[in-house]
Amino acid sequence: MASKSRWANDDPETEAIIAQQKREKEEKRRAKAEKQRKLDEASKARQARQDANNAQGPNGESGPPTKRRRISNDQEAGSSDAEVVRVGQKQKRSSLLRFPVGVWGPCRHVDNFERLNHIEEGSYGWVSRAKDISTGEVVALKKLKLDNAPDGFPVTGLREIQTLMEARHANVVYLREVVMGNKLDDVFLVMDFLEHDLKALLDEMREPFLPSEIKTVLLQVVGGLEFLHSQWIMHRDLKTSNLLMNNRGEIKIADFGMARYYGDPPPKLTQLVVTLWYRAPELLLGADKYGTEIDMWSIGCIFGELLTKEPLLQGKNEVDQVSKIFALTGPPNSQTWPGFRSLPNAKSLRLPSTSAASSAGNPPLLPRSRFPYLTNSGLGLLSGLLALNPSSRPTAQQCLAHPYFLEDPRPKPKEMFPTFPSKAGMERKRRHHTPEAPKRGQEAPELDFAGVFGGAPGGDTGEAGAGFTLRLG
């Protein structure tokens, strides 16, 4: 029998308490062990059911067990199923993608830009060269003309902002932001600054562009226009002064003051669009339903201007413009332009008797004497673009695939395009002897084309044209 410790308490009550505490600890230990045993059994049963399910195919057939997917890179070997599930849920929550969305906020003030010099004034705004004070970048700052807008913000300004925001293309001028001045009618468009416009370059060049350079310019302009047309946007004022170029040989379409969306079938539109020298004949004859064909006519006029260094059709007014068009293309007839007599202003047109004769080709080729250095393929493209019948003109997409751009000389790479002295600081000297674009709200004049081929009324009489009035002594 073991000897009793000398520190033991001989009190029976104390010994009873100690014995009770030992029994309670032993019961808790057994309960914890039993709970852990049940958890292990449940886990084994769950694993067994999962293995049984994995051993069957989608139709209940037996198949190889699927490979266990690792849910997280942080999962370590030996982690329990509960930990795997928790890590997977956490990983799933953190993998949600969040996309930035536009938020409403105030426009920046125009005082954030330092205006350097004036460039030019157009029909729908004043353009200046400016510098962003925060970044030091040189930009083009266009102040919209809101003087003649008693009904609120003009629709031309809204269309320009809307179309520029949608037309994100390498050959369309980039609209950075819209800024405000101190008054509600001080609205400015901040765009990328480009050093030149084609009109100023053609006026100052001693020789016209080389054929390879003309192809480079045309491909870029038609490429930008094809994107606009694919977005259901008509520019409606294409001309060389609205085509900007930087010193890297990049051409960008600018000035969207007359641009607008259209549909199919085209809605009823105003006929008073496009600067006079680049206006299609159907517009001059009063058409109020038209499509992208009017832009392709303007491309033809620009093509001819690049070849000759001078505007191709410089009419003094609408009647004189029609006369010059028919002198180049020949008078219309039922073969070259079916249905032209249904246009409002065509009823007064007195055609010569020879106009009924059928012409070779449809559309007929333009006179070779006007473009002696143009290849046959190039003359065919120019004749198609300047076809009297709108449906005979190629689309922008067809124009890009024309054989003219595949024959020698090939288009010159932009990197090899010649550079020109920058006009930065001298933009105020730009003066283009070109009629202005029609202004919004201006009514189309009543025209009489009876004297186009005979010198009767309506010829060179000094009547009002679109955007200007010619006075003869």
TrEMBL record:
Its EC number is 2.7.11.22. One of its GO terms (molecular function) is cyclin-dependent protein serine/threonine kinase activity. It holds the Pfam family Pkinase. Residues 21-44, 434-443 have a biased composition (Basic and acidic residues). GO terms for cellular component: nucleus. Keywords: ATP-binding, Kinase, Nucleotide-binding, Serine/threonine-protein kinase, Transferase. SMART domains: S_TKc (SM00220). It catalyses: L-seryl-[protein] + ATP = O-phospho-L-seryl-[protein] + ADP + H(+); L-threonyl-[protein] + ATP = O-phospho-L-threonyl-[protein] + ADP + H(+). Residues 113-405 form the Protein kinase domain. This is cyclin-dependent kinase. Belongs to the protein kinase superfamily. CMGC Ser/Thr protein kinase family. CDC2/CDKX subfamily. Residues 1-88, 410-473 are annotated as: Disordered. GO terms for biological process: regulation of mitotic cell cycle. It comes from Penicillium antarcticum. It comes from the Eukaryota. Residues 452-465 have a biased composition (Gly residues). PROSITE patterns: PROTEIN_KINASE_DOM, PROTEIN_KINASE_ST.
